Description:
By secondary structure, the protein is mainly alpha-helical. The chain has helices at 12-19, 21-28, 33-60, 63-86, 96-108, 113-132, 139-148, 151-164, 173-197.
Amino acid sequence: MMFNYFLSTRLPQLEAVAEHPFVQRLSSGSLPSRAFTAWMVQGLYINDALIRFQAHLLREAPPSHRHILAVLLLTLSEDADWLEEHISPLHHPLYPETERYCQVFTDLERLPYPLALAMNWCFHRTYQQLWREAVPTNELMEFMCERWTSEEIQQLLSRLDTLVRPIWSQVDPEDFLRIIRQLLRLEMGIWGEALNAGAGS
């Protein structure tokens, strides 16, 4: 995986992801439904920011990149539509970590295109890996697992790989790792809050 090229610097946050109680319970089928729903609600806010970032990438992209990025934008929009039909943010507060997470995607719009595209690729590949290891225990979780482990998504992300690979040498590894550290810290904070929300279920 291309991401490994940038791991010459130890990244404790990455190691902590697999050990986080939320991830362990998601992958063992023991994650409380309320915790999962709380995480998905935060995901709705994040997905909205990600859609705006994806639209920005599409505007900045060279012609040869536009089709793949447009399909990915449509995929994110379809996910948001489905989730909004099944969960309501009204009963779940916006976590401070989620608000900061959304701001990161706004900040990414100021990055050079190669770095912004690499971050987009890394986010989606990491998200897909999380679903590959998940054991669904309800309808919502099953939908997301099937969606993000489908052949359709795999082919789409493989095509995204082909966009990133030729411009990888233009990505500053220090900037790349700095942003990853920031996103991982925020994501794990969201997982902790979601577990707290599901503690009574």
